Amino acid sequence: MKQISQKGFTLIELLVVIAIIGVLSTLAAVALGNARVKSRDAKRLANVSQMMSALELYYNDAGSYPATITVGETLRYGDTTYMNQVPTNPGPNNDGPCPANNNYDYESTDEGASYVITFCIGGSVGDLPAGTNTATPSGLRN
Description:
Blueprint: H1 11-62, E1 75-77, E2 80-83, E3 105-109, E4 114-121, E5 131-136, E6 139-141
Antiparallel strand pairs: 1-2, 3-4, 4-5, 5-6
């Protein structure tokens, strides 16, 4: 009698491979989600730092901070442009403890002698905890 040699995989082997691929893809998606939150937080801090620098240049020329700045608009004094476009919060902007539709909030204080920029980050970055933080002429704080 002849023995027939069959080549291929059994159903069990295929199911095990599919299960392993499923677990690995789930782990990769979770890791990618965390990396995206950290990336948005780094972008938020870079945006706030850029705004702080532009505001200091504005202050040096004007002698006071602007009464208002509008996200998406140009920050200028006279003929000098300090920011072509005030940055917007990268989306989705409801990471972690941050509320939905949260954006950078600028407020001039002490009749233009100071300012406060309020912003929210989804996870702790350096000394800044997750949640609402502020930027003033003296630096970043929670």
